[in-house]
Amino acid sequence: EVQLQASGGGLVQPGGSLILSCTASGFVFNIYPFTWARQAPGKEFEWVSLINDGGSRTDYADSVKGRFTIFRDNYKNTVYLQMNNLKPEDTARYYCRRGYKTGYDYQGQGTLVTVSS
Fold it and tell me: Residue 97 in contact with residue 35, Cβ under 8 Å?
């Protein structure tokens, strides 16, 4: 059974940092790309970041470029999203997906990030 378990969300003040983790199981991890997407309350899903299977290529939405970093540890079957200089508009539930920006086949349950003073 494919599982994507996201964790690391929480409440943080503007300007703060968080690191999200997505631990995968049930499949061969290191042959797949992964993406992070988010959904703010009452809004559509927004793609955030992509990393390829080997970790050599990454891509970011303009809204997070320069503040977020995606990376992976293929020995731990885990993808990470380091989020720095967080803003209130980053408040959302963050989801890990197996796949690309325009297509994925599995999505985890998400982890909630709230940026507020």
Answer: yes
User: pLDDT of 65-77, one tens digit each?
Assistant: 999 999 999 999 9
The tokens for 69 are 């970093």
Rounded to 5°, the CA angle 74-79-81 comes to: 145
Number of neighbours of residue 85 by Cβ within 10 angstroms: 13
Q: How many residues does the chain have?
A: 117
Residue type, 41: P
Q: What is the pLDDT of residue 102?
A: 84
Span 7-12, average pLDDT = 97
Structural contact between residues 111 and 4, judged by C-beta atoms closer than 8 angstroms = no
Q: How far apart are CA 53 and CA 111, in angstroms?
A: 22
What b-and-e string marks burial along 97-111, b requiring 16 or more CB atoms within 10 Å of the CB?
Answer: bbeeeeebebbbebb
